[in-house]
Structures are given as structure tokens and as C-alpha cells.
Write a structure and sequence with these properties.
- 40% of the residues lie in helices and 24% in strands.
- The protein has 3 domains: 48 residues, no CATH class; 73 residues, 2-Layer Sandwich (Alpha-Beta Plaits); 74 residues, Alpha-Beta Plaits.
- The chain is an alpha+beta fold.
- Strands 2-7-1-8 form a 4-stranded antiparallel sheet. Strands 4-5-3-6 form a 4-stranded antiparallel sheet.
Length: 219
């Protein structure tokens, strides 16, 4: 019995060895090395056309851009939004653009002198120095008339409070002048625009969008 088992094992090993060498391919109907080189290489169709790409190139989506137009004042931004809604290329982005508003504080100044003659202004300067009040000589928008500034402030309330303190110190001719009124500016922005969308926005007539859509300014 043991002898029969040994002979069977020897025959099985011999058969397996013959199959791995390809001697039995015609008998068993399958090739022992069908999935190995060079057989698999020989089965390739036009291998010279295969080109490997870097992973980032192969999977990178189309680049998107952030575009914005402006700044506009309150009336201009309403007109621009209406023009965009009426434009076929831009109206497709309805709901995609956002209005970004920026508040700019005004500027108020406490002035004395009212472009007075030189002699009167020198007298006022002498008085301010005697009282220990800091001042600055500023020119009007014309660039010729001068007045004396006792301070500039971002809010009207701050200017009024400062004027009250000056009156308490004996300065009774000061007045509050609005140098720059407060304002709100607006920009229209489209985030993540596809290349075709970006091209459509940049091609819009400037008459509708001011200076037109440009790449968003960095934060």
C-alpha cells in the first residue's frame, strides 16, 4: 500500500513538472505560461501608443477661477446686476454671483481760520500755541487757500466731542468740516467659474460691467 502511494506521488510530481514546462499544453488545452512574459507582451496591440501621464495630470479637473467686477456705488451695482441678468452668458450664472459690500468711513475735520488773511491766520496760530493746542496747516481742494486743522476724525460724533473739549479750553471759532462723506462700495463676484464661464464673463461689454470682470484680488 505504501509503495503504491509513493509511486502515485512520484507520477503526480512528474506530471506537474511537465505541465509547468509547457510539455502538456497540447494535452490539457491551456498554456502554463499564458499570463507571463513574453507571451503577454506578444499579445499587446500597438504598445508604442501607450503613454504614461503623471498622476496629477491624469486626474486634475479643469482649473476654476474667481472673477469680480467693481467697485460700484449703490445705484451702479443695481444697474450692473440688471445688465448681467439680461445677458445670456451671464444670466446662466444667476444665483452664482454674490455682492460684496465695503463700508468706508467718512472723514471730518475741526477747522479754524476759514482761509483768513495771512495776518489773521498768524494771530490765530499764536493763540493756539499759547493755549497748547496742536494744529496743522492744510490746503483746500483748490490748492491755494489754507486753513488750520485741529484734528481729523472718522465719525461725526468723535469730531463733535473733540470740538466741545476745545471750546472748554477757550477755542470758540472752531467748526466741523466734512472732508469725505461715508460711503459704501460694492463688488460683484463669481467664485469657481469654469474656463468657459470665465471667458464669457471677461467678454461682457464694459458698458455693462464698468471695468469688466477680472481675477479676484487676493484676500
Amino acid at each position: 500500500m505504501l509503495r503504491t502511494l509513493v509511486i502515485a506521488l512520484l507520477l503526480a510530481n512528474a506530471a506537474f513538472f511537465a505541465w509547468t514546462q509547457g510539455w502538456l499544453d497540447a494535452v490539457v488545452g491551456s498554456a502554463a505560461h499564458a499570463e507571463r512574459e513574453p507571451q503577454r507582451l506578444a499579445q499587446q496591440v500597438h504598445p508604442e501608443a501607450v503613454r504614461l501621464l503623471p498622476a496629477q495630470v491624469a486626474v486634475a479637473p479643469p482649473a476654476r477661477r474667481c472673477l469680480e467686477a467693481g467697485p460700484f456705488d449703490a445705484s451702479e451695482v443695481v444697474a450692473v446686476e440688471a445688465a448681467l441678468a439680461a445677458n445670456p452668458a451671464a444670466s446662466a450664472l444667476a444665483g452664482r454671483w454674490s455682492r460684496l459690500s465695503t463700508d468706508t468711513p467718512g472723514l471730518w475735520m475741526i477747522a479754524v481760520g476759514r482761509a483768513a488773511p495771512r495776518e489773521a491766520q498768524l494771530k490765530k496760530i499764536t493763540e493756539l500755541k499759547r493755549l497748547g493746542v496742536a494744529f496743522e496747516v492744510v490746503k483746500a481742494a483748490s490748492g491755494t487757500d489754507e486753513t488750520l486743522s485741529l484734528g481729523q476724525f472718522d465719525t461725526l460724533v468723535a469730531a463733535q466731542e473733540a470740538l466741545a473739549r476745545l471750546v472748554a479750553r477757550g477755542i470758540h471759532t472752531g467748526r466741523i468740516v466734512e472732508v469725505t462723506p461715508p460711503a459704501t462700495s460694492h463688488r460683484l463676484r463669481v467664485d469657481a467659474a469654469t474656463p468657459p464661464e470665465a471667458s464669457a464673463l471677461e467678454a461682457l461689454p464694459s458698458a455693462a460691467t464698468g471695468k469688466g470682470f477680472v481675477t479676484c484680488a487676493p484676500p
